[in-house]
Design goal:
The complex is a heterodimer of chains A (about 1000) and B (about 425). Chain A is an alpha+beta fold. Chain A is built from 26 helices and 52 strands. In chain B, the strands form three sheets. In chain B, strands 1, 2, 8, 9, 10, 11, 17 and 18 form an eight-stranded mixed β-sheet that branches. An eight-stranded mixed β-sheet of chain B has the order 5-6-4-13-14-15-12-16. A two-stranded antiparallel ribbon of chain B has the order 3-7. In chain B, a hairpin with a 5-residue loop joins strand 17 (about 350) and strand 18. The chains are: A alpha+beta (about 1000), B alpha/beta (about 425).
Chain lengths: ~1000, ~425
């Protein structure tokens, strides 16, 4: 069994017990424990079930590489699936349950899959479930979906109670990893005065050296670590953060850091996670190395663990993962575990080492001296057990697995060698090189990620760079730190140098293991990929490492192959008869370990998930029951229903009140872009289809803008403010887009024209006073002459209204007498209130976007986005009058001369009236005879806008119809959504209301 | 080709799965083929397959710079739908969708086509009108879609939030026979079937030049030597302009990175695909349990298969707004692919200025769903010189101004 040792544990505080629950049983641990160490201390070795076969799974690692120990963490709104127990710091009241089993961890129906394993090899689902066809969707797939997945989803109806934030940092050197390499590199870089940020994913500094010991500068490694951290903390140009992981590296020195602020203290105030968005000149990845498992039969049983993890649990947490631990290692480092276990008073029945040494290297000698039996040239034929390992069978490594003897044990510590953590190096294009001596990939210094200047911006330090011994690690880190700030190399602090015998790569144990053993030797524990699966993939021609990955799912689990990829790759290259470097690796992608979606989204959620843009009158709308309609990031009132009124009733009332009296519209969201300069007229002549340079000062002109491809993209009224200054109104949705469009042309094509643009949309409140009584209302406000003579239609004037400075435009989007009044934004609400007050006895009625739409449709005015959809040119809409014939060019002109654009076959704007007065369905198509070559019904037109007109008391519509304007009076047939029900409509003039335009020009 | 079936798997299980043959033969290039297809992605392989199946043309090589299915076929979000607006688009995407229905049986390879439905949320009045138009258009195009109410939305996707504070759900465009398939399996299934017809799939073979005589294509130069052919099909999304340049013509295409990401796997919570175009994000849940997420394309041109962070941020933000439970899930992996963008965001399936040379490109952000239809039509175009499915997708439409613009129906990537 696994237990807490009576003494030891450098990270735990035995004076501070912590209570927690696992699968609804109360257990206890100590402050400083991880959930994994606390579970082991309570003899909870088996903590989950695998993905495919639902095999028992135990804790295998002690850090971010853990593939097995994933739990549902927390309750209710704080529930979170797939939390790694090895990186979850224990806190009082922690609640965890194991995953992927039913009904319970111990008795899981899904484990039947394991019995059927021989029928479920890699990729079995591609070969099965083909017949009968409907069974895939209705029978097979639902079953597979139900048995796959891991953790339980959070409840959809609760809301995440935690908050998240983004934090921006700009530094000279970012060091990722707070082991001795990271500390030394940070110190070396910081000495130059450079701004240095050092981040460490765990809660502790020092990495492996703090566990494995050694001497640095004449002092124990732990003391050196503490002293170095203190030095760095005292430097003003250095920032240190623990619990902060380097998640991803991007072009131009952009790095994501993921800081887990409150995961270990969920009741604390403040954000739970903080996403660091770091821009750095240089990056040093001092990310260490990860130990590899060894592929032998039964290596997935609970109790079979990484040797380094076993050591970590003993040294860091005072936990014995087992009472009797067999160590299996193909390198000297594994012996450290045997020695540490022995020192803690635990039994180590044997170290099994496939190598044969002529002279024992120091660690081997030390183990032997401690009385540990070392079996050289030996291997594990298989591990035995069910929910926990109970023993191993020893065999000759060079053989096929014939049993030499059995050793009872409850823990197996395995070390297949180390793999540098090269993820961050690789994210942005850094390449790797195969180091055959050490049997690992390490960064290729000749192929580093490069910045805009072509120079490398990522450096590696320490064991991440393939240096496994303290002295080399420190020297490499010193070099990296100095190089990152442009200094020459310098000697590093001295440390004890070691001698070790070379690793003997063991990709399959024993070397000639037969099929039976290979089918039980796991590579990917979580996804249940075995040696035999990779070999099957190779046999079937999935020779690319990417094919093998995708066919077998090797490395696709939540650990992304941190333990399995290199071993799998080696098996694949062996099966293909190719060298490992020829086969290559799969792509390393961010994030290094999974990061919360909440952290990615940051503060922007709910109301503020996008910026809310508010007009100066917004609060009034809100107070007066506006039904909101989102328009871009604005909210506009759709209508203002009175008590007991439906939306439709409200819209009708608003239209009638405006047509018969006076209405008030908040039009502040309309884009207002000032274009100024001696070339402003010339510029607008290019931008609009109209001739704008001839517009007299004081006048307004309706203008159209097209894309380069000729399609109508925006419209609005342009007013000439003075000789050099124009004010361009755009649609609400178009303001930012059109401003960017103007700037793009100015900056890339016409950079020598004397023109400036400024988007003043939010500087003004713009309020439309609309209706036959509009003038009466403005006259009551007083301050300027708004008579027909002083301010005729399509002109503007500056002045004051009710003592508020105002620019008044005589323009109309409704067909009524209409003034659009622009006042400084800060006085917008005042002006609005004043109008309501003064107009009360005139029946003044605020109206929303829907009434606006109805009135413009009654008047036959087009709406960008309704009559246009990116395929419509102004000529289709009867807007030829707005296209200057005098200009040599404008944006879109050449495009509009192409054959399809000038064809007589185009669909053109008309009005439509149903024969029975009903409202045509929105978006309906008019059918023509027959079908096209693809069997689709032929069409001859479509509805673009359709409304019930309160003014005319019938349905009215606008539409595009094939050669429409030439077919006035003709009846065409539209089909409803079902594609069958007919609606007949007559083609009519699109101007339904006041076709002579008398009302707006009074 | 040994047929796949549950029986075959059971039989092989008894002999340790030693009897499986290669899914596709390892091939070295011959000196000459009737047809050479450049690019062994989904579209290239499907083209070869239908050349053989429909027109009996089997002396075909499919040559591939990297590993088959390794471009956008193997890095998309696997969505299949045909609820397009314009007739030519609806025709080719619906042809593809209908071929997907029986593709597993046709190829004897389970591509896991799973028509669990595609839902496109309407979150503004404008979007409602746009989707109503699509429903009307689809009815005439033979594409089965309908507009559903918020209550129906919630019933189909219980994890959705209807009444978000910014963009409440007003309804949705629903295609119940849309869904997803296993992307790799589509490539592998076609490759296996092509190989079985005697075609050569030649991987790790890069085209370095296009040979021509008197305005007619005669073959390609490759890193594995010269290969002669009567007809050449270029199907190399992400590098279309590069290969077209070798053939001596230019394309109206820009390349940008499109990104996708997956969460850690969780137990099933969502059956269908949901697209939220107003907020720019879409999501489905894979059979493995991962939430598969995509969003917009980067706005700068790029050939590296990685993208910028800000798009991912925007996408995740949008989806948390739509599915608040996502906040406590974790992002597992995020990747990018390079997509061809044309001026109207619709593909090019076309003859080219070089006689005998055809090009299939420009699928932008949505090519996976089209693979069978694209192969079906492009094979017909290559074999017969014309196809009703590809007629409108000629590269000369840009010169004529005859765009097939889907901007209304496809506001975001997919």
């Amino acid at each position: 069994m696994s237990t807490r040792l009576a003494t030891g544990g450098r990270l735990i505080d035995r004076s501070k017990p912590v209570r927690f629950q696992f699968n609804d049983t109360w257990l206890s641990g100590f402050e400083g424990d991880t959930l994994a160490s606390a579970l082991l201390a309570n003899d909870k070795v088996m903590v989950g079930r695998s993905f495919k076969y639902h095999r028992p799974r135990g804790i295998v690692a002690s850090g971010a590489e853990e593939p097995n120990a994933l739990v549902n963490l927390g309750k209710g709104a704080r529930h979170e699936p797939n939390q790694r127990a090895t990186t979850t710091e224990l806190f009082d009241g922690l609640y965890a349950t194991s995953q992927n089993h039913w009904p319970s961890l111990e008795f899981d129906i899904g484990a039947i899959n394991a019995k059927l394993a021989r029928f479920l090899p890699a990729g079995f689902y591609y070969k099965m479930f083909i017949h009968p066809r409907p069974f895939w969707k209705h029978i097979y797939e639902p079953f597979i979906r139900q048995s796959a997945g891991l953790g339980r989803a959070p409840d959809p109806e609760t809301r995440d109670p935690d908050t998240y934030e983004h934090f921006y940092a700009y530094v000279d050197v970012l060091v990722v990893g707070g082991g001795v390499a990271g500390l030394q590199a940070a110190k070396a870089a910081a000495k130059s005065g450079a701004r240095v940020l050092l981040i460490e994913q765990t809660a502790h500094w020092g990495g492996r050296a703090a566990v494995d010991g050694g001497m640095v500068d004449g002092q124990p490694a732990r003391d050196w670590i503490a002293a170095t951290v203190k030095t760095l903390e005292g430097m003003e140009n250095v920032t240190l953060r623990t619990r902060c992981m380097g998640a991803g590296v991007y072009d131009h020195g952009y790095v994501l850091g993921y800081e887990r602020l409150n995961d270990h203290q969920p009741q604390a105030d403040g954000p739970r996670h903080r996403l660091w968005r770091i821009r750095t000149k240089q990056i040093i990845t001092a990310t260490g190395a990860i130990e590899r498992p060894i592929s032998f039969a039964g290596n997935d049983l609970p109790g079979v663990m990484l040797a380094s993890a076993v050591r970590d649990y003993v040294v860091n947490y005072g936990v014995a993962p087992g009472e009797r631990t067999v160590v299996v290692t193909n390198n000297d480092d594994g012996y450290r575990t045997a020695i540490a276990l022995k020192a803690a008073g635990l039994a180590v029945p044997a170290v099994i080492d496939p190598r044969v040494h002529a002279i024992d290297p120091p660690l081997v000698a030390q183990a032997k001296a401690a009385g540990i039996e070392v079996l050289m040239g030996r291997a594990v034929a298989k591990a035995k057990g069910g929910r926990r390992v109970t023993g191993i069978v020893v065999t000759a490594h060079s053989g096929e697995g014939a049993a030499l003897r059995e050793i009872a044990c409850d823990c197996v510590a395995m070390s297949g060698g180390w793999s540098p953590v090269v993820h961050l190096w690789s994210h942005c294009g850094g390449k790797l090189t195969w180091d055959a001596h050490h049997a690992f990939f390490r960064p290729d210094p000749a192929k580093a990620p490069t910045g805009a200047d072509g120079a490398p911006f990522v450096h590696v330090a320490g064991s991440a760079n393939g240096y496994l011994f303290l002295k080399d690690v420190l020297q490499d880190a010193e070099n990296a730190g100095r190089v990152s700030v442009g200094l020459e190399r310098d000697p590093a602090p001295d440390a004890n140098s070691e001698h070790a015998a070379p690793i003997h790569p063991v990709w399959m144990m024993p070397a000639k293991a037969g099929d039976d053993l290979r089918a039980k030797a796991w590579l990917d524990y979580q996804n249940d990929v075995k040696v035999s699966d990779v070999q099957l993939a190779a046999r079937e021609g999935f020779e690319s490492v990417e094919h093998t990955k995708r066919y077998t799912t090797l490395g696709m689990a939540t650990d992304q192959g941190k333990l399995s990829n290199i071993n799998g790759l080696a098996i694949l290259s062996d099966a293909l008869g190719e060298d490992i470097p020829q086969v290559g690796t799969t792509t390393f992608r961010p994030p290094y370990t999974p990061i919360s979606m909440g952290a990615i989204a940051g503060q922007a959620r709910d109301e503020i998930f996008q910026p809310i843009r508010k007009t100066p009158v917004h609060a009034w709308h809100e107070e007066n029951g506006a039904v909101w309609e989102p328009v871009g990031q604005w909210r506009r009132p759709y209508c203002f229903p009175r008590k007991g009124e439906s939306k439709h009733q409200a819209v009708r009332r608003e239209v009638r009140a405006t047509r018969n009296g006076v209405g008030l519209l908040d039009a502040s969201t309309l884009g207002k872009i000032v274009v100024k300069g001696s070339d402003a007229g010339r510029f607008l002549d290019m931008l609009y289809t109209n001739l704008m340079s001839t517009l007299p000062v004081g006048k307004c002109r309706y203008g159209l803008m097209c894309t380069e491809n000729g399609f109508l993209t925006d419209d609005g009224v342009v007013a000439r403010l003075d000789e050099d200054t124009f004010l361009c109104h755009t649609t609400t949705g178009g303001a930012d887009r059109i401003h960017a469009h103007m700037e793009e042309w100015l900056q890339t094509e016409w950079w020598d024209w004397k023109v400036y643009t400024a988007n003043l949309t939010e500087q003004y409140a713009q309020i439309a006073v609309v209706g036959p009584k509009a003038r009466v209302l403005l006259e009551r406000l007083g301050g300027m002459d708004v008579s027909k003579e002083a301010l005729p239609f399509m002109q503007w004037a500056d002045g004051t209204l009710g003592s508020i400075p105002a620019r008044v435009f005589r323009i109309s989007f409704s067909g009524e007498l209409s003034y659009e009044v622009a006042v400084p934004a800060g006085r917008g609400r005042e002006f609005w209130d004043l109008c309501l007050h003064v107009g009360a006895d005139l029946g003044i009625t605020p109206y929303g976007t829907e009434a606006l739409h109805v009135m413009r449709a009654e008047k036959g005015f087009i709406m960008i986005g309704d009559e246009t959809d990116g395929t419509v040119i102004p000529q289709d809409l009867g807007l030829n009058w707005a296209i200057s014939k005098k200009k040599a060019d404008y944006i879109g002109k050449r495009a509009q001369e192409r054959s399809h654009m000038t064809s007589a076959d185009r669909w053109q704007l008309v009005g439509l009236e149903t024969l029975d007065g009903s409202v045509l369905p929105d978006g309906a198509y008019a059918v023509a005879d027959g079908r096209n070559a693809n069997g689709q019904r032929n069409t001859q037109g479509r509805v673009t806008s359709t409304y019930y007109s309160p003014t005319l008391d019938k349905g009215i519509a606008m539409g595009l119809v094939h050669n429409g304007p030439a077919r006035m009076g003709e009846v065409v047939v539209f089909l409803k959504e079902d594609g069958e029900t007919k609606v007949k409509a007559r083609i009519v003039n699109p101007v339904f209301y006041d076709p002579k335009g008398e009302k707006q020009d009074v | 080709m040994k047929r796949y079936s549950a029986f075959a798997v059971a039989r092989e299980a008894l002999t340790g799965h030693k009897g499986w043959e290669r899914a596709w033969r390892k091939a070295q290039p011959k000196k000459r083929y009737d047809v050479v297809i450049v690019g062994a992605g989904g579209h290239g392989l499907a083209t070869a397959y239908y050349l053989g199946k429909r027109f009996g043309i089997t002396n075909v090589a499919i040559i591939e710079k990297g590993w088959l299915g390794g471009g956008n076929t193997g890095r998309n979000t696997t969505i299949i739908r045909s609820n397009y607006l314009q007739d030519p688009s609806a025709a080719i995407y619906e042809k593809a969708r209908s071929l997907y229905e029986t593709l597993s049986q046709d190829l004897n390879y389970n591509v896991m086509f799973s028509p669990r439905g595609v839902m496109m949320l309407a979150q503004t009045e404008h979007e409602v009108r746009g989707y109503l138009r699509t429903v009307h258009a689809n009815a005439l195009q033979g594409v089965k879609t309908r507009f559903i109410t918020p209550a129906e939305v919630k019933k189909i996707v219980p994890i959705i939030r209807l009444d978000g504070p910014r963009y409440p759900v007003l309804g949705a465009l629903w295609q119940d026979r849309g869904g997803t398939a296993r992307h790799d399996a589509v490539a592998w299934g076609y490759a296996r079937a092509c190989s079985a017809m005697g075609m050569d799939i030649i991987q790790k073979c890069e085209v370095t030049g296009v040979r021509q005589e008197a305005g007619r294509v005669t073959g390609v130069q490759t890193t594995k030597g010269d290969i002669a052919c009567d007809k050449l099909g270029i199907v190399v999304a992400g590098h279309s302009g590069v290969v077209a340049n070798m053939a001596g013509f230019r394309l109206p295409i820009e390349c940008v990175a499109l990104q996708a990401l997956v969460s850690e796997p969780i137990k099933p919570v969502m059956d269908c695909v949901v697209m939220a175009n107003t907020v720019h994000g879409y999501m489905s849940q894979s059979d493995k349990g991962e939430m598969v997420i995509g969003g917009g394309a980067d706005q700068f041109n790029n050939y590296s298969q990685r993208g910028s962070f800000h798009h991912v941020e925007e996408t995740v933000r949008a989806l948390i707004e739509t599915f608040p439970m996502l906040s406590r899930l974790k992002m597992l992996r995020w990747w990018g692919g390079i997509v061809d963008m044309t001026g109207d965001r619709s593909p090019i399936l076309s003859k080219t200025p070089l006689e005998g040379c055809f090009i299939n490109c420009g699928w932008g952000t949505g090519g996976f769903k089209a693979i069978p239809g694209s192969g079906w039509g492009f094979a017909e175009l290559m074999a017969k010189g014309h196809s009703p499915l590809t007629e409108e997708f000629s590269m000369w439409r840009f010169r004529e101004g005859k765009f097939i613009d889907e901007s209304v129906a496809a506001g975001v990537a997919h």
